[in-house]
Amino acid sequence: MSKRKRTGLVGIRQWLLRAIFSVLGLWVAGILLFSFLPVPFSAVMVERQLGAWFSGDFSYVAHSDWVGMDDIAPWMPLAVMASEDQKFPTHWGFDVQAIQSVLDNDGGKMRGASTLSQQTAKNMFLWDGRSWIRKGLEAGLTVGIETVWTKRRILTVYLNVAEFGEGVFGVEEASQRYFHKSASRLTMSEAALLAAVLPNPIRFRADAPSGYIRQRQQWILRQMRQLGGEGFLREYKLQ
Q1: Rounded CA gap, 171 and 99, in Å?
Q2: Residue 168 bridge partners (DSSP)
Q3: Which of 131, 168, 191, 221 is most buried by its number of CB atoms within 10 A?
């Protein structure tokens, strides 16, 4: 190998290492800063916005209005836990039993079993989609936010960056868009309806719920009651 080629390969390797460490530094800084600062936007919001622009849709606006947990009706965090992650208050970012069940039943396919912590890490810092690389990065980021953030903070960030419809991010924007009121005034039924669309907020619509979404809403309401309602939130200091 010529000296020029070796020098070029060394240069590429150094550039890649700098790029990797720069991204890692941004992630670490984001985890530390957003442990107390409001989140202005998420990686998924940026991905959706850029995707719309590249496709020629300049009317699309990914929008979110940050609100603290004190300005969110208690039914909303209860609804997303009942729907997505009932072990959220007690696990360390991963539901091992759920992961094993998915692997056993689906032959290793990477779907389901994501906790709210994992979803928050993905929404905040990564791209949408499924791959082992993304899941590996998601796992590392999940450990980071579980170490630095409180459970209440994870829930707060999740509810502010979750996608509830096309261009609709965060519970305040969703509440204003679909129910014409602030997130602090959401009813138990409305919170369950918003949680019902989370698995696929582009396909499912809170403002025009299908029969399936109505059934899912009723299931979530039953789960919310079985968890113990607001008492469940108080028990784990999530309210």
Answers
A1: 27
A2: 63, 165
A3: 191
CA 187, CA 47: separation in Å to the nearest integer? Answer: 31
CA dist 97 and 100 (Å) reads 5
Q: What is the DSSP string of 33-93?
A: HTTTSPP---HHHHHHHHHHHHTT--S---B-----GGGS-THHHHHHHHHH-TTTTTSSS
Span 40-235 CATH architecture? Orthogonal Bundle (1.10)
163: three-class secondary structure by DSSP: strand
Question: What residue ranges do the domains of the chain occupy?
Answer: 1-33, 40-235
Q: Please check whether residue 183 is in contact with residue 175, taking contact to mean a CB–CB distance below 8 angstroms.
A: yes
99 against 226, higher pLDDT: 226
pTM: 0.90
Which three-class secondary structure state does DSSP give residue 220? helix
Reported as a pLDDT band with limits 50, 70 and 90, residue 179 is very high
Residues 201 and 168: beta-carbon distance below 8 Å: yes
Strand locations in the chain (E): 163-165, 168-169
